[in-house]
Sequence to fold (735 residues):
Amino acid sequence: MTDPAERITGLVGALRAHGVRIGTGETVDAALAAEALGLGDRELLREGLAATLLHGAAQRAVFDPVFDLYFPRGVGAPDAGPADREGLRDRLAEALAADDRTLMAQLAAQAVDGFGGYGSSPGSDGWSAYQTLERLRPQTLLARVRADVRAGAGAGGDFADRLLDDEIRRRIEEFRRLVGAEARRRVAERRGRDEIARRAVRPTADRVDFLFASREQLAELRRAVQPLARKLATRLAARRRRAARGTIDLRRTLRSSLSTGGVPMRPVLRRRRPVRPELVLLCDVSGSVSGFSDFTMLLVQALHDQFGKVRVFAFVNRLDEVTGLLDHGRADPEGLGARIRAEATLTGWHGSSDYGMALGEFTERYGAAVGPRTTVFVLGDARTNQSDPNLPAVREIARRARRVYWLNPEPAEQWGTGDSAAPAYADLVEMHECRTARQLGGLVGRLLPV
Amino acid sequence: MFTSVDDVSARLAETGYLASPAVATTVFLAARLGKPLLVEGPAGVGKTELAKAVAQVAEARLVRLQCYEGVDESRALYEWNHAKQLLRISAGPGESWDETRTDVFSEEFLLPRPLLTAIRGDEPTVLLIDETDKADVEMEGLLLEVLSDFQITVPELGTVTATRRPFVVLTSNAGRELSEALRRRCLFLHIGFPEEELERRIVRLKVPGLPEALAESVVRVVGALRAMDLRKAPSVAETVDWARTLLALGADTLDETVVRDSLGVILKHQDDIQKAAAKLDLDAL
Fold:
């Protein structure tokens, strides 16, 4: 093994490249931790380095795969020779039935070695987790493992047995993860650790692009909504407390100073009438941006208590109010999008989004929802499918509302390309790029009215 | 304080706290590096218990600062005992003002609060700053001085530096994002839900009378519930509660009726209960 100090600085460098902020002090602590724990037990070392280097639980998802690269379980190919596919599947089924993690890790290493390799010339060869799993197909072992477990336990009929399928699925998922880690390790050996650590490790959920998030990443994002909303809520409440203290009311200060002979002994603060701001949300829920708008609506729903009135409208090319579907306490993230599409009239005779039509319908039917206390958020990519963007409608909304913000899940470089009417809208209202949960949290925190 | 990570696990286990490898490692490092330990995680996974267990193992005094919105310097650090000061002033009528003034701001009239108590003590101390996220941001600034230098400045008396560093545990439910500066001074530990095997051991330890097979089923069902994406996933505390309930009900095995009747012990929201019932194929509630 190379110098541990070098490994740790390499690890720190890779983590920094993924946006984990680590200072020199922590790096030194990590080295001290490594010294105190020794390099013998890999899992202890992992926990020790995580404790010294990380500052939050979310960073763990980045840390673990990077750690696997810098402190690999082993080097080179596994000791056991290449296995035949059926033999490996047999042993995997046994490991899954027994829920034996160590054996699963060994089998993952053998599987990648036996079935994951591709290419032959240096530079174009490598190891693929995808290919390994394609050949091994661990998901097809479910029935067999279930039978094995049932036969082993003998009992049967226990209530908890109906959970067995899900448990086995989770074990298989764990095996897939192990195969992925092993393939990354093998590639890293070939191509240089630093490069792989930067490229092949998934970003944390809050940095995933809404438009390209996979299903499980979206699920992870949804779980992040509640804490994010709570954080924003405390921040809003604190801001409101501060704002309520107000500024000095010069006229009344002078007036009260008359009793002390013109010396302003006691400054009088301007009192604010507590106003709960109102919020209107216009969400594009068409297929292309649905992940984004679902997520934003959840966030708003969670922030519900902070506002006097929240109204949410969804549109594709027709527009309908969906406030009722977002009832507080009925947080069912997964079903939300489906519920909206099922219960509201959002499409006319075609299924693609039409901003001009929807915005026009909004000013026509729900114009009264927007007043001088209202902040309007428009959520969408502003891709109009070549139809009229209906700028007068946006102008009308902007005229009536206190503020209008447009959050666009597309990268700013792409605004205006193809059928995007983003620049035209951005001329009328403030438009912000909002591609990740991190950006959204920051924007919402900054833009929400006090 | 500890010789090795295994030593930590073994000695914590003696007090009835079963630690995962992550917990044991971090506690060991916190003691070795002399750094405060910031513990985050959902409610009911044993964050506060950990501090208590460490105190018991180290035979240390546990000093606890419970944070809440509005907790301030006088609640956390020290206060002057005004009543006693007044008594002292009125008891000595013949003195000059200067004499009285220097006199009433002395040790005798100081009321130490948790932070000062923990810093000044000579005996081994575990300082638990509980639910740090509930305190206001200003409080964090105060903690920074205490946690990095283990000293506190009392204007009238000067700076009090710890002769013996307390073992500090901060807990947080992540209700509010703690500042980077505070995190930077601490070792970070996230206690999540335990692995199945560890949880089984915890249940067996806390509810000794429970049949082995039932304990296993309980842990499996709770594991399945946690995978369900509920509003409030059941925690270890709930698992133990449920095990106790089942024991009290005299159940030998888990069956549909028992689960349906006692689901309220582990789930705290009506919609969670309905969702779980649907997924577990219980008849409609």
Notes: The CA atoms of residues 156 and 264 of chain B lie 55 Å apart. The longest strand of chain B covers residues 61-66.
